[in-house]
Design goal:
Layout lengths: L3 E4 L6 E3 L2 H7 L3 H10 L3 H8 L4 H11 L4 H9 L5 E4 L1 H13 L3 E6 L6 H7 L8 E4 H4 L6 H10 L7 E5 L2 H9 L3 E4 L3 H10 L4
Parallel strand pairs: 1-4, 1-6, 4-5, 6-7
Antiparallel strand pairs: 2-3
Helix pairs in contact: 1-2, 4-5, 6-11
């Protein structure tokens, strides 16, 4: 019996994408993709999600790629321009689950502790959760089992009574290894059908 829903945030409830900013900076899309693949990479960004400071991260890349200093500094200097809209279909599902009163609902997110407060200011639904566990604050991140267990232990959640939703298959597989039923999010419509099939909606 599922009594707890655990949401990822980015690309599930909130649209975040560095290309929203860097399309304004680079004249050619090929240059933008090269920069995001080789300079401000996803792996680099994930270290901030695990607690590295934005200043340290920026200084590190500026030292390694001095020719890109301005573009590197834009990553966090203009970070709000990467933040898109809420993914409204998923927010509607969240509200329906919340209003049912049948579930405790938590967020388990890989997010920098320094940028997460910006999202909280912009998106009121982030205050609807019964609890939020932010990787940058905890100095650990998905897919580490320790991070999932931190949420389970903090809120007295049993793995077999929880459902986890994440767009990253790596994180979904890690949750399943811990005995948490998980949905690999691809769209709000697909999520709704998965929840209906589980008789959660």
């Amino acid at each position: 019996m599922i009594n707890t829903i655990i949401f990822d945030l980015g690309a599930v409830l909130i649209d975040w994408n560095p290309t929203y900013l860097y399309k304004k900076i680079f004249e050619q899309e090929e240059q933008m993709h090269h920069f995001l693949k080789n300079v401000c990479t996803p792996d680099w960004n994930e270290e901030q999600d695990a607690g590295r400071s934005l200043k340290e991260a920026t200084d590190l890349l500026v030292r390694d790629f001095p020719d890109h200093e301005e573009n590197i500094k834009a990553f966090y200097g203009r970070w709000t321009e990467m933040l898109g809209d809420a993914i409204h279909g998923t927010v509607d599902i969240f509200k329906e689950l919340k209003d049912s009163g049948n579930y405790k609902i938590y967020a388990l997110t890989n997010w920098s502790a320094e940028t997460y407060p910006i999202a909280v200011e912009r998106f009121d639904f982030l205050n609807w959760f019964d609890g939020v566990v932010v990787s940058g604050t905890e100095l650990m991140r998905k897919p580490s089992p320790l991070f999932y267990n931190l949420l389970l232990n903090r809120y007295n959640v049993k793995a077999e009574e929880a459902l986890f939703i994440d767009d990253n298959l790596r994180n979904v597989l890690a949750a399943r290894e811990l005995g948490i039923d998980s949905i690999h999010f691809q769209s709000s419509e697909q999520l709704k059908q998965e929840l209906i099939s589980r008789e959660i909606l």
